[in-house]
Write a structure and sequence with these properties.
alpha/beta, 2 domains, six-stranded parallel beta sheet, about 40% helix
């Protein structure tokens, strides 16, 4: 029997994060993921704005600084990026320069103007993963009896005011947020509590299993914990609890693969230079099959080519597809598929605290590279609050030494377990159920 279409799914190619949020939900729409601004849905003028915005994003993501632009543009850009302090709690509903700019682009430059007409012919909800399309749709529906529900998935633990329209209390946007901190922030911005659903970030169901049993996640986590607890300290203290919570009768003694690290270079290639230092430190361990390194290069060929150059320089070309595996695809959704497959065999995810921070819910410890931008700084804080993320205790060129220490003192095992226990894992299921039934129960 054909599965009913639940919603239109709209993302924007602004780095990998907003596309990654859409990918686990691809089955809710028979038309797949609509990447707004990259097809024929938009005018030439609107396409120009999306291209400019994307260029600025990639520059910020690569260097962590602002490009050489005019003073007014710089002021607006800072307004879009900056996140105010969480305390003291206060009313932050007043529109910022970034909010006013987005409103201008929607009203005067027709950003997102064709969104309502694109969905004519049905009343299905729209699920957005980027604020601009959700706000554009909200503004175009204002004054009308809302026949189409407008959802927005939030991709970070804390966000800028630009995620909320200027008249926040009047907005019909329904927010699907990853954690309770995001909900509190949206309330400060003037969003009605009834329009906020703490679903958790949508994680790939192929890495989880069923909603009730989470069979795949639990099997992977058990294998991972053994790799992360070389001294046995963690299992000595928590072995019985682990067996009870994972539903396993016994703890297996060993696994049949090497200790596996995934290093995520980032959609803009921000971390690519670090690869050379990691390879230099892990060279002998890779060659002796004691460590396997997965290098997630994204969708930019130049990043992948630079990684290959570093591998050649370290004399490790013969280890490609053995103990060095490269994840690269021209197509972003094929990349996510490959990434998720390798993630099941990953023991440590070394990444900027991007949207990948929420993958700690799969029981994967997050080794936090330097954040770029306020959102990643807040994601890092969230990871630290739930004890699922760690700072590298030393430079990457000595990672072989400090990774061994982190395994021996069970700190990585503790982080993996904390993420599994404290982070929400079932966001994809909860969002799908909300769309299908209109019902939601917050954990």
């Amino acid at each position: 029997m054909k599965k009913p279409e639940l919603a239109h799914l709209v993302a924007v190619h602004m780095g990998l994060g907003h596309l990654r949020a859409a990918y686990p939900l691809r089955s809710i729409s028979t038309e797949g993921i609509i990447v707004w601004g990259s097809r024929g849905q938009v005018s030439r003028g609107e396409k120009k704005y999306w291209r400019l915005w994307r260029r600025i994003y990639y520059h910020l993501s690569r260097v962590g600084s602002y490009p050489v632009i005019g003073k007014l543009a710089l002021k607006i850009l800072i307004s879009v990026e900056r996140i105010p302090s969480f305390y003291p709690q206060r009313d932050l509903s007043r529109p910022t320069a970034g909010v006013r700019l987005l409103k201008f682009l929607i009203r005067k430059a027709n950003l997102g103007r064709r969104l309502p007409e694109y969905f004519e012919g049905d009343s299905l909800p729209v699920v957005n993963t980027f604020y601009a399309t959700a706000v554009a749709l909200d503004m175009n529906l204002k004054g009308q009896e809302p026949s189409r529900t407008n959802y927005l998935i939030v991709c970070d633990a804390d966000i800028n005011r630009v995620w909320v329209p200027d008249r926040s209390a009047e907005s019909q946007i329904k927010y699907l947020v990853p954690c309770s901190r995001t909900k509190a922030r949206l309330i400060n911005y003037g969003v009605k509590e009834k329009n906020i659903f703490v679903t958790g970030f949508p994680l790939p169901t192929e890495n989880i299993g069923s909603e009730a049993g989470m069979e795949g996640l639990k099997i992977d986590l058990m294998a991972r914990l053994q790799q992360l607890d070389t001294s046995g300290k963690f299992f000595t203290y928590y072995g019985q609890t682990i067996q009870q919570m994972l539903g396993l009768k016994r703890v297996p003694d060993s696994t049949n693969r090497p200790f596996t690290i995934m290093f995520a270079i980032g959609g803009a290639g921000a971390q690519v230079e670090t690869v050379s230092k990691i390879l230099k430190s892990l060279n002998g361990l890779i060659d002796s099959a004691r460590v396997r390194l997965i290098l997630a290069c994204g969708v930019q060929r130049k990043v992948m080519e630079k990684v290959l150059k570093f591998i050649n320089q370290q004399g490790l070309s013969h280890q490609i597809r053995r103990n060095i595996n490269i994840i690269y695809q021209d197509d972003v959704f094929n990349y996510f598929d490959q990434f998720n497959r390798w993630l099941r065999q990953t023991d440590v995810l070394w990444t900027k605290p991007s949207e990948l921070s929420f993958y700690c819910g799969l029981g994967i410890p997050i080794l936090m590279a330097a954040p770029i931008g306020p959102q990643e700084e807040r994601n890092r804080r969230w990871l630290m609050d739930i004890h699922a993320g760690l700072f590298p205790p030393g430079p990457p060129e000595y990672c072989a030494e400090w990774l061994a220490d982190l395994r021996n003192n069970a700190r990585l095992a503790e982080a993996a377990w904390a993420g599994f226990i404290k982070a929400r894992k079932l966001g994809t299921y909860k969002i799908a159920k909300l769309l299908e039934t209109g019902q939601f129960t917050e954990e």
